[in-house]
């Protein structure tokens, strides 16, 4: 069994690792940006594909990965796992529709509430305790789902027509065409000390250091990894100031 995931701040990574460790200890799990991910998908029949919900939608990077490699999905059994900060009508359904077109069978879907990754929005900020509680509940949900999956009772969250309507009218229609411009808003301010961490860790290789400055190549998938890791909180995207960097492991320390 194979798990492939995109994770900006670690939430999705945790969820897929926990789920697969409970279902199949032999499973292999790789980040989608890993060079081996395509070959591993070709070699495996059952794939757990996981990603964070963005604006009730699938992140560009994952959508483009599926489309660019459209020949590798035929005959595969795909389970979709998405994480979300609050609401995702059909975060899993968005990938279902594309993958089905390419001949995959969708065996199930799981949508898990996790801490919100958007570090530069005061409105979305939660307390440490709230985030800890959210993770505890997520873990419980994963444990229940794993037992059902072992018994071949696959959860089908976000896959129904009703969920499709919820995602579409709840958020996607509003954000339609707006989000293309959002990813170009990535800003690096003068507090940057050129440590190179963001350049090294961006899953899109979107950041480079040029003439002593970090520069965005405008292919950001809005994962918030660099924003949540920068030691100087020098990077913003949707907001103007980083309020609290979201990193999954932070909420597991105490
Ligand atoms: C750009 C962006 C858009 C998001 N949009 C939504 C959304 O529409 N609904 C939602 O519930 N959560 C949304 N979130 C929250 C993430 O889905 C959530 O925090 C997720 O667990 C992050 O996972 P990761 O740490 O694996 O990247 C958004 C996060 C980002 C960065
Ligand atoms: S992580 Fe922050 S400080 Fe380091 S290079 Fe990137 S923007 Fe600059
Ligand atoms: S630039 Fe930052 S937010 Fe954008 S894809 Fe890279 S790591 Fe993610």
Automatic annotation (TrEMBL):
Keyword entries, A-Z: Iron, Iron-sulfur, Metal-binding
GO MF annotation terms: iron-sulfur cluster binding; metal ion binding
InterPro entries cross-referenced by the UniProt entry: 4Fe4S_Fe-S-bd, 4Fe4S_Fe_S_CS, EFR1-like, Flavodoxin_dom, Flavoprotein-like_sf
Record-annotated 4Fe-4S ferredoxin-type domain positions: 184-212, 214-240
Name by which UniProt lists this protein: 4Fe-4S dicluster protein
């Amino acid at each position: 069994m194979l798990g492939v995931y995109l994770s900006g701040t670690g939430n999705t990574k945790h969820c897929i690792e926990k789920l697969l460790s409970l279902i199949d200890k032999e499973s292999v799990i790789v980040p989608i940006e890993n060079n081996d991910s395509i070959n591993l998908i070709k070699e495996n029949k059952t794939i757990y594909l996981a990603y964070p919900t963005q604006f009730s939608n699938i992140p560009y990077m994952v959508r483009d990965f599926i489309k660019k490699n459209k020949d590798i999905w035929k005959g595969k059994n795909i389970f979709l796992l998405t994480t979300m900060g609050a609401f995702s009508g059909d975060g899993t359904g968005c990938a279902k529709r594309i993958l089905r077109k390419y001949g995959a069978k969708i065996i199930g879907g799981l949508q898990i509430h996790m801490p919100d990754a958007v570090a530069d929005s005061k409105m979305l900020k939660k307390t440490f305790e709230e985030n800890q509680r959210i993770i505890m509940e997520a873990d419980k949900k994963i444990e229940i789902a794993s037992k059902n999956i072992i018994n071949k009772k696959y959860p089908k969250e976000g896959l129904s027509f009703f969920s499709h309507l919820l995602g579409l009218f709840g958020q996607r229609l509003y954000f339609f065409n707006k989000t293309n411009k959002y990813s170009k808003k990535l800003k690096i301010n003068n507090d940057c000390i050129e440590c190179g961490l963001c350049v090294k860790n961006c899953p899109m290789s979107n950041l480079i250091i040029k003439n002593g400055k970090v520069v965005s190549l405008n292919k950001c998938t809005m994962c918030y990894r660099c924003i949540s890791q920068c030691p100087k909180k020098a990077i913003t995207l949707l907001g103007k100031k980083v309020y609290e960097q979201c990193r999954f492991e932070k909420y597991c320390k105490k």
